[in-house]
């Protein structure tokens, strides 16, 4: 599919979760309809901008930890969203220049901007595949995955801010189990997931806004998120709120009093290693 084809497929009449997330992060790759929906969300969940930033920060820390401490050199990032620098491959390749990353997303807008993802180091590789987490076999059997990733070596599966868009009817646990099942020993699952555990009040309205846009949302509890890591060895500190998973040291610029609250972040995060 060409970028021109992708552009024609983009529906600008309804908000899209990836473009709304771009707005939360202060990006420019969204439309007025996305801005309006995102501002409606922020009107009931004021922490959404903080949550988006902390989600990205968790991805950066988890990627560095896997590269530095666990020898990971390959990543499969599903639900990558619109490119926001630094992206996962830039973080990984800053630690291990030979890192290989395959991004997968089902949004044509991501395909339109996918060339931003292709700026790899000379030693490493990056690729983008348009695919859906609900069809894991097609994704895993794609030529891009076969060309870039070596399934005889450990691979990190990155599922950041994705699974709350997979409802119970879509069998999210079965999907994750299928993806993890093909990964060799020493591979990893890194994920973040929205939760209502800290402030349940706004989430009915937030999910209603997304559902009106055609994107069902399923918030999950800590125990429900932990279930995704069944059979994996969780890295310390286990399942943690996004900004509490191996946080950067407190600096003068960000004192403890200025740090976000758990309710503002409202994300459970974790990283597990496959035995």
What does this structure look like?
The chain is of the alpha/beta class and 275 residues long. It has helices at residues 3-9, 17-24, 32-44, 48-70, 88-95, 108-112, 136-140, 143-148, 172-181, 203-212, 222-226, 262-265, and strands at residues 74-78, 100-105, 125-130, 156-160, 188-194, 233-234, 240-241, 267-273. Strands 1, 2, 3, 4, 5, 6, 7 and 8 form an 8-stranded mixed β-sheet that branches. Helix 3 (32-44) packs antiparallel against helix 10. The model is unreliable at 1-8 (pLDDT under 50).
Give a quick set of tags describing it.
single chain; 275 residues; alpha/beta; 12 helices
Structural class category: alpha/beta
- Globally, the shape reads globular
What Rg, in angstroms, do the CA atoms define?
18 Å
Helix fraction by DSSP (H/I, runs of at least 4):
25-40%
Mean pLDDT: 90
- Give the helix tally: 12
Percent in strands? 5-15%
SSE arrangement, N to C:
HHHHEHEHEHHEHEHHEEHE
- By DSSP, the count of extended strands is 8
Biggest sheet statistics: 8 strands, mixed
How far from one another are the termini? Answer: 38 Å
* Uncertain ranges: 1-8
């Amino acid at each position: 599919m060409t970028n021109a084809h992708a552009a024609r497929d983009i529906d600008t009449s309804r908000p899209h979760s990836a473009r709304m997330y771009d707005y939360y992060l202060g990006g420019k790759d969204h439309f007025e309809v996305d801005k309006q929906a995102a501002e409606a969300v922020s009107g009931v969940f004021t922490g959404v901008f903080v949550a988006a930033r902390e989600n990205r920060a968790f991805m950066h820390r988890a990627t560095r930890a896997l590269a530095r401490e666990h020898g990971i050199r390959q990543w499969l990032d599903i639900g990558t969203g619109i490119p926001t620098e630094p992206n996962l491959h830039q973080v990984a390749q800053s630690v291990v220049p030979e890192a290989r990353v395959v991004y997968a997303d089902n949004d044509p807008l991501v395909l339109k901007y996918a060339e931003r993802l292709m700026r790899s180091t000379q030693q490493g590789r990056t690729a983008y595949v348009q695919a859906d987490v609900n069809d894991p076999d097609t994704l895993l059997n794609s030529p891009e995955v076969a060309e870039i990733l070596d399934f005889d070596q450990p691979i990190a599966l990155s599922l950041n801010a994705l699974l709350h868009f997979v409802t119970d009817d879509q069998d999210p646990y079965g999907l994750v189990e299928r993806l993890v099942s093909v990964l060799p020993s020493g591979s990893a699952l890194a994920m973040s997931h929205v939760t209502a555990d800290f402030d349940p009040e706004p989430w009915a309205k937030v999910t209603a806004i997304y559902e009106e846009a055609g994107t069902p949302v399923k918030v999950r509890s800590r125990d429900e998120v932990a279930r995704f890591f069944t059979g994996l060895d969780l890295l310390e500190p286990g399942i943690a709120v996004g900004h509490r998973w191996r946080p950067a040291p407190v600096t003068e610029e960000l004192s403890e009093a200025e740090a976000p609250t758990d309710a503002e972040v409202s994300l459970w995060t974790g990283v597990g290693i496959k035995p």
